[in-house]
Write a structure and sequence with these properties.
Layout (H helix, E strand, L loop, with lengths): L20 H6 L2 H11 L2 E4 L8 E4 L2 H9 L4 E2 L7 H4 L18 H12 L2 H5 L2 H17 L3 E2 L1 H16 L6 H12 L11 H22 L9 H7 L1 E2 L2 E2 L2 H16 L1 H15 L1 H9 L4 H12 L4 E6 L3 E3 L2 E3 L4 E5 H4 L34 H18 E6 L4 E2 L8 E3 L1 E6 L1 H6 L1
Parallel strand pairs: 2-10
Antiparallel strand pairs: 1-2, 3-7, 4-14, 5-6, 7-10, 8-9, 11-14, 12-13
Helix pairs in contact: 7-8, 7-17, 8-9, 8-12, 8-13, 9-10, 10-12, 13-15, 13-17
Bound molecules: protoporphyrin IX containing FE (HEM).
The site of protoporphyrin IX containing FE has 27 residues, from helix 12, helix 13 and helix 17.
GO molecular function, one term: monooxygenase activity
Protein name: Cytochrome P450
Family: Belongs to the cytochrome P450 family.
């Protein structure tokens, strides 16, 4: 269906495009979302090809309701659009944290919360700061440096440490993570989309299986995999299969979102040096600034739910059982909630962004992400005077996370740091 009602939409699209990764990589999605919010805030898309029709929800209030209201909208059949795109049944209903509804959700979530508590992450301050400084220094040492890969490995090194994954597997696992979210991107595809996702899942599952077997039920200081080894669910101890799927969602959750936020941070620092200069003199505003970087980045583009009952939304009736996609990227620019939504403003307050979601599935790693991103920002402001985008920027082709594949930057050192050397 092409919606052509005024106001004029500069983006010509058809329903299946919303599931096509390449469309997301090459289209001004913000223009499209602005149009949908205005003229068709809740509409039913028909992707064709025997795939289920699905609802597209773009306003902040409706996106929040879909994500928050677990009695109306269920996560059990999967939460990533690829379920529709690939026409696959969900693999982990009621076993993988993201694919559960309360009360089952609480059983899995409460113990896992400990593995990524901000207080625990903060004990790794030195490691995180060191990783950030190393990445920044590599860029400073070069004239032009493609920093995209370093942001991925920064995230992977922290998650790998907290999960207890062997460092020699991080590079390979990072590639495999990208295969699951960018299965149509030539850099990551290994055969067709289905084959790519299967291969990636297999490799990740094998990695977690191996590690699960190495943990015991009485380790005194368990890492995240160790915590899963010790978890008791209502039906008994967590199984290897359950640990595999939860390891999978944790690894993906952490490692595609944080790099995208960092790359957005660099592009915004290049575009708005004055705002970052102000921030340097007001470090107390770092958290406010980070919220704006997250709103701007909106690392997770869209999430899925399935209606449990008939629900009225914006005059439309969503029938029980129908898939509903909630577009976070759109909600974060909703003019009904944000003044001047297309202006990047590091002092924006209030900032009701939904980058981490809302409701029971609110990102379990939000605290960890905030600690790590804040540390990175502190180091960046300390070491780098200016950022310039110094070459062609390439985005990952994905309808889940519109990350960066290539981001050539030129960093100039801060004079004080340069003088001290
Ligand atoms: C900038 C960084 C991050 C962003 C923007 C982000 C975004 C999100 C969003 C939007 C959700 C909600 C999913 C839903 O409602 O279905 C979510 C959930 C989740 N995130 Fe994150 N995330 C980030 C970092 C992390 C990190 C560091 C981890 C690893 C610890 C992580 C692991 C997860 C997991 C496992 C869930 C599912 C939680 C549940 O179902 O209860 N995320 N994240």
């Amino acid at each position: 269906m092409i919606i052509s009602t005024p106001p004029f939409c500069p983006v010509q699209f058809d329903d299946p495009d919303l599931l096509r990764s390449a469309f997301h990589a090459t289209t001004d999605m913000h223009a499209l979302w602005a149009h949908l919010r205005e003229v068709a805030p809740v509409y039913k898309a028909d992707p064709g090809g025997g795939r289920e029709q699905f609802w597209v929800v773009t306003r902040h209030a409706d996106v929040s309701r879909v994500l928050r209201s677990h009695t109306e909208f269920s996560s059990r059949r999967g939460t990533i659009l690829s379920v529709l795109d690939l026409n696959t049944p969900d693999i982990a209903t009621d076993d993988m944290l993201a694919d559960t509804d309360p009360p089952r959700h609480r059983e899995l979530r409460e113990p896992l919360n400990h593995a990524f508590a901000p207080s625990l992450v903060a004990t790794h301050d030195k490691l995180i700061r060191g990783l950030a400084r190393d990445a920044i220094q590599r860029a400073l040492d070069a004239d032009v440096y493609d920093i995209a890969h370093d942001t991925m490995m920064f995230a992977m090194s922290i998650t790998g440490t907290l999960m207890g994954l062997p460092p020699e597997s991080w590079e390979r696992l990072m590639h495999v993570v990208m295969m699951t979210i960018a299965y149509e991107d030539p850099t990551y595809a290994a055969g067709n989309a289905m084959a790519t996702v299967r291969q990636a899942r297999h490799q990740m599952f094998e990695a977690f299986k191996e590690q699960f077997a190495l943990r015991t039920r009485d380790d005194e200081h368990p890492d995240a995999i160790g915590i899963m080894r010790q978890m008791d669910l209502s039906e008994g101890p967590m199984t290897e299969q359950q640990a595999m799927v939860n390891g999978y969602v944790l690894l993906i959750g952490a490692n595609v979102t944080t790099p995208h936020t960092l790359c957005t941070l660099f592009t915004q620092m290049a575009e708005h040096p004055d705002q970052f200069e102000r921030l340097r003199h007001h470090p107390e505003d770092l958290q406010i600034a980070l919220a704006e970087v997250l709103r701007w980045a909106s690392p997770v583009t869209a999430l899925m739910r399935y209606a449990i009952q008939d629900v009225e939304l914006q005059g439309q009736t969503i029938r029980a059982g129908e898939p509903v996609s909630a577009w976070l990227g759109s909600a974060n620019r909703d003019e009904r909630v944000f003044d001047d939504p297309y202006t990047f403003d590091l002092t924006r307050r209030p900032n009701r962004h939904v980058a981490f979601g809302v409701g029971p599935h609110y990102c379990i790693g939000a605290g960890m992400a905030k600690v790590t991103l804040q540390i990175f920002m502190e180091e960046l402001l300390d070491m780098v005077e200016t950022v310039e985008i110094a070459g062609e920027v390439q985005h990952v082709a994905s309808h889940f996370v519109p990350g960066y594949k290539s981001l050539p930057v030129r960093f100039t050192p801060r004079k004080t740091v340069a003088a001290a050397r």
